Amino acid sequence: MNDLLAALYSRKSVRAYEDRAIPADAVESILRAAIEAPSAGNQQQYTILDIEDQELKERLAVLCDNQPFIAKAKLVLVFLADCRKWLRAYEFAKVEHRRPGPGDFLLACEDALIAAQSSVIAAESLGIGSCYIGDVLENREAMGELLGLKDYVVPICMLVFGYPTRQQLERIKPRRFAPKYTILKNAYRELSEEETRTMLDERNAGADPGFEAFVDAFCKRKYMSAFAAELNRSSQDYLREFWEE
Ligand SMILES: Cc1cc2nc3c(=O)[nH]c(=O)nc-3n(C[C@H](O)[C@H](O)[C@H](O)COP(=O)(O)O)c2cc1C
Question: What is the pLDDT of residue 107?
Answer without folding.
Answer: 98
